[in-house]
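Closing statement on the FE2/S2 (inorganic) cluster sub-project.
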Amino acid sequence: MSMTKKAIHKPTAAEDELTTRRRFLTWLSGVGLVGSAIISIFSNLIFIKPRATYGEPNRFPIGRPEEFPPGTRISIDDKRVCIVREGNRLAAISTTCTHLGCIVAASETGFACPCHGSRFDQDGNVTGGPAPKPLPWYQVNLAPNGELEVDKDTEVPPGTYITV
Ligand code: FES
């Protein structure tokens, strides 16, 4: 009966160094995998989140009725609307030119576009220039808090005023 003896192998310094390098490379590739997984999760979450950019709200407050004295036509350029007050009646007319969208200015006779010369009467009807259609009128509401609100999503027939 023969007994085999196994020789116990003691690693040499070169083998120790090789093992350490192997462990380091294993650790490094693990870090790389985890890092790329985290980056891909974040990029997927960013991709899934809707990238909607919301514009200006089309329904907005413009102030109280007394801020628009009878007989005035006050343009609010950043809202592209002109508030017309006649006596105790009030309306909102668009100041966006129906030709190519420039802001029209209120004039003695109505509205005039500085871009290509379209002209509109006091009610927004085209009286000259290339504009293809009249300026729209918008719904105006008097909110419970006493503020006037213009709703640019709701067009109303020209000549529609609210009583304030
Ligand atoms: S944009 Fe007003 S006339 Fe052209």
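Residues 97, 99-102, 113, 115-118, 129-131 surround FE2/S2 (inorganic) cluster (CB under 6 Å). With this model delivered, the sub-project is considered complete and its resources will be redirected to Aim 3.
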